[in-house]
């Protein structure tokens, strides 16, 4: 496994409709810094030889110059236009990879991940080909159908996070499949291509900023008040 580069494909090409803000949520600030500053920083702290690929909407490419001013030492980043869906944005990012790599695909709007989670995913992917962070469910779960609803055994389910981490020779060919709306993440794409998926322990704080309340939660976390 020598000579493998590390590439973080950070997808920030969405429109953030559930946030209901004029500016797409990935360009908002938390803890007094741009959200993507926190996301990119975690990857640079995890490994100092990390390559960053940032996927952003075509209309917001100029924002990256502003983002980079938040860093004391602005990192080198490859900027790629977003696609119609998350799948297409990830594919645009993967198209930049030209040599054997460990590839981390991460939601730009999960800014609270720790460098140790990134390192756990790296080690897991090197050992088993992929590493997908997951956490247990805290809430009760019911299955709903046309006839009603019934209790489900929550111990049989996990909540899936990013960074979803793969050896490039597994992930890149998997993304040659035609798009299917059931592809909500990289694990679902790789599984359809025949890969066995390996879970690693995720992090409670690694929330996906989706609605306004998540901004308040992230600010509380960054100000040291925890979650
Ligand atoms: N075409 C898309 C859609 C989503 N994403 C990214 O994928 C991550 C997870 O998506 P989600 O939170 O669902 O983002 P949005 O699609 O922006 O939000 P919404 O569903 O509320 O519109 C985000 O970092 C988002 O920017 C992307 O790069 N390209
Ligand atoms: C990739 C993901 O964050 C894993 O939980 C999630 O599947 C993204 O889903 P969304 O519908 O794009 O928010």
From TrEMBL:
Pathway: Isoprenoid biosynthesis; isopentenyl diphosphate biosynthesis via DXP pathway; isopentenyl diphosphate from 1-deoxy-D-xylulose 5-phosphate: step 2/6. It comes from the Bacteria. InterPro entries: IspD, IspD/TarI, IspD/TarI_cytidylyltransf_bact, Nucleotide-diphossugar_trans. It catalyses: 2-C-methyl-D-erythritol 4-phosphate + CTP + H(+) = 4-CDP-2-C-methyl-D-erythritol + diphosphate. CDD domains: CDP-ME_synthetase. This is 2-C-methyl-D-erythritol 4-phosphate cytidylyltransferase. Its EC number is 2.7.7.60. The record marks 18, 25 as: Transition state stabilizer. The record marks 154, 208 as: Positions MEP for the nucleophilic attack. PANTHER family: 2-C-METHYL-D-ERYTHRITOL 4-PHOSPHATE CYTIDYLYLTRANSFERASE, CHLOROPLASTIC (PTHR32125:SF4). It is an enzyme of class 2 (transferase). The keyword Transcription regulation does not apply. GO terms for molecular function: 2-C-methyl-D-erythritol 4-phosphate cytidylyltransferase activity. Catalyzes the formation of 4-diphosphocytidyl-2-C-methyl-D-erythritol from CTP and 2-C-methyl-D-erythritol 4-phosphate (MEP). Keywords: Isoprene biosynthesis, Nucleotidyltransferase, Transferase. Belongs to the IspD/TarI cytidylyltransferase family. IspD subfamily.
């Amino acid at each position: 496994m020598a000579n493998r580069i590390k590439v973080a494909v950070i997808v920030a090409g969405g429109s953030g409709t559930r946030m209901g803000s004029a500016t797409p949520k990935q360009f908002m600030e938390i803890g007094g810094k741009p959200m993507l500053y926190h996301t990119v920083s975690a990857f640079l702290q995890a490994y100092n030889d990390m390559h960053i690929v940032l996927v952003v909407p075509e209309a917001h490419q100029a924002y990256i110059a502003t983002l980079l001013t938040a860093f004391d030492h602005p990192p080198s980043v490859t900027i790629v236009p977003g696609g119609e869906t998350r799948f297409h944005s990830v594919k645009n990012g993967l198209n930049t990879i030209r040599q054997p790599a460990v590839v981390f695909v991460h939601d730009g709007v999960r800014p609270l991940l720790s460098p140790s989670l990134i390192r756990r995913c790296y080690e897991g992917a090197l050992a088993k080909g992929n590493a997908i962070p997951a956490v247990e469910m805290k809430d009760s779960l019911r299955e709903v159908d046309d006839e009603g609803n019934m209790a489900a055994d929550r111990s049989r389910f996990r909540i899936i996070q990013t960074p979803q981490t793969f050896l490039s020779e597994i992930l890149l060919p998997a993304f040659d499949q035609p798009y299917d709306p059931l592809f909500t993440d990289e694990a679902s794409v790789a599984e359809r291509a025949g890969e066995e998926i390996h879970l690693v322990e995720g992090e409670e704080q690694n929330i996906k900023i989706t609605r306004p309340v998540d901004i308040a939660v992230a600010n509380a976390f960054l100000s040291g008040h925890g979650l």
